[in-house]
Design goal:
It is a single chain. By secondary structure, the protein is an alpha/beta fold. It contains six helices and seven strands, in the order E-H-E-E-H-E-H-E-E-E-H-H-H. It has a single domain, classed as Domain of unknown function DUF4159 (Rossmann fold). A hairpin with a 2-residue loop joins strand 6 and strand 7.
Length: about 210
């Protein structure tokens, strides 16, 4: 419907999202159906070739360089060593894209980790007219409010290197909960569809910019 090309990544046929297994005690592994459902949605609604299988990569492994898109989420603590932070910096410099979604409770540690990876950078809140909110589906008010946390407005922040967005972070939005199987969070069909559309925008943006 939108893309006139096929994206093929990794050794398997099709684009795949890699969940990052990080240290610190946070539940990096929660809701494993999220990526699979999002990939299936992208397969049905774009021309991107996907491999809809859940996979994770350990922060200590060089396998992370095999994936163009890393997804990070959780409710608790997220910690990186100096070596791990440098590894993610190199990953981004080589063309990788990181998406972090605060599933509630990881905001404080996530911001510290982002600063550790990019000490010279500040998180920048994206304006609502940014392409990530308009590329495929329209989100005129920015990130959707999939789940309520602290009654604050949803926000989307980014880090740019040499003019390219390499990291995107959603706070008080939590769209990845909307990607999961309906029985997990009991979200309405409309709320899940909204979250999946937003996820599709993130993926399409990451692959085309």
């Amino acid at each position: 419907m939108f893309l006139g090309f096929i994206v093929s990544a990794q050794e398997k046929s099709g684009f795949q999202i890699a969940r990052l297994k990080y240290n610190g005690g946070g539940d990096w592994y929660n809701d494993p159906s999220a990526e699979v459902n999002l990939l299936n949605y992208i397969n049905e609604n774009t021309n991107i070739e996907v491999y809809p299988e859940y996979t994770f990569v350990d922060i200590a492994s060089n396998d992370l360089y095999s994936y163009p898109f890393l997804f990070i989420t959780g409710h608790g603590n997220f910690v990186l060593s100096d070596t791990e932070a440098q590894k993610l910096r190199v990953y981004c410099e080589r063309g990788g894209f990181i998406y972090i979604d605060d599933d509630y409770g990881m905001d404080n540690s996530a911001r510290k980790v982002i600063k550790k990876i990019f000490p010279e950078k500040d998180l920048v809140e994206l304006p609502f007219n940014h392409p990530i909110y308009n590329l495929v589906y329209k989100f005129p008010q920015g990130p959707p409010k999939t789940h309520e946390h602290d009654n604050k407005p949803p926000q989307g922040f980014s880090v740019f290197l040499d003019g390219r967005m390499v990291l995107y972070y959603t706070y008080e939005s939590n769209p990845s909960d909307g990607w999961t199987d309906q029985k997990v969070h009991n979200d309405s069909t409309d709320k899940r569809e909204e979250a999946l559309k937003f996820g599709a925008n993130i993926i399409v943006y990451a692959l085309t910019h």
